């Protein structure tokens, strides 16, 4: 089975992601060790918490440079989940203006309610919409399928080609992004039942 490095950087419960990967046919390894990441066939960066704290933890462990070499230079498939997706951005405002990994040209900003009764954090099931363009991560998943969200901040992409799917909440936000073989999802596929597991299986097939 394919080895999947799930990056341990002190942000969130990684074990639910590991269990989902295992159920989808992968071999999860939760680690921040260089050897484990370099030996993996793909990488997942999950996370729950603030942008600033996440980047601080990543940099303190030297994971930013390791991920650049393994993902951007070697082209190993990568999936950022929730905070992990946001950290792919150039900058984020949560916890103070902070430079991100810089893989996606864009900023992570607080969602703003666009109508009475719109609540934050955005918690629960919501649609993921896309225009049908080929995306290997969404193979077999129809546009409009529901996924499970828990967040108050979202990424705004500057390059249209990085923007793969959106969710109609607070005026709409990017819920799937990607460049090359590096993808990010704002929702939690490990909590999104059949559609989430299909997405993880698609990721393992990259």
Explain how this protein is built.
The protein has 206 residues and is of the alpha/beta class. The chain has one domain: 3-Layer(aba) Sandwich (Rossmann fold), CATH 3.40.50.880. Helices cover 25% and strands 32% of the residues. The chain contains 6 helices and 13 strands. The chain has helices spanning 15-23, 34-39, 51-60, 63-73, 83-86, 193-204, and strands spanning 3-7, 27-31, 42-45, 78-81, 89-92, 98-99, 104-110, 122-128, 145-151, 153-157, 163-167, 173-179, 182-185. It has a 7-stranded mixed beta sheet. A 4-stranded mixed beta sheet has the order 6-5-7-10, covered by helices on one side. It has a two-stranded antiparallel sheet with strand order 8-9. It is globular and about 50 Å long. It starts with a strand and ends with a helix. The model has no long low-confidence stretch (mean pLDDT 95).
Present the secondary structure layout.
Layout lengths: L2 E5 L7 H9 L3 E5 L2 H6 L2 E4 L5 H10 L2 H11 L4 E4 L1 H4 L2 E4 L5 E2 L4 E7 L11 E7 L16 E7 L1 E5 L5 E5 L5 E7 L2 E4 L7 H12 L2
Parallel strand pairs: 1-2, 1-3, 3-4, 4-13, 5-7
Antiparallel strand pairs: 5-6, 7-10, 8-9, 11-12, 12-13
Uncertain parts: none
* Shape descriptor: globular
CATH class: Alpha Beta
- Give the end-to-end Cα distance, rounded to a whole number of Å: 13 Å
Question: Widest sheet: strand order?
Answer: 2-1-3-4-13-12-11
Radius of gyration, whole Å:
16 Å
Count of individual domains: 1
Q: What's the CATH H-level homologous superfamily?
A: Class I glutamine amidotransferase (GATase) domain
Question: Helical proportion?
Answer: 25-40%
Q: For the report, how would you describe the main beta sheet? A: 7 strands, mixed
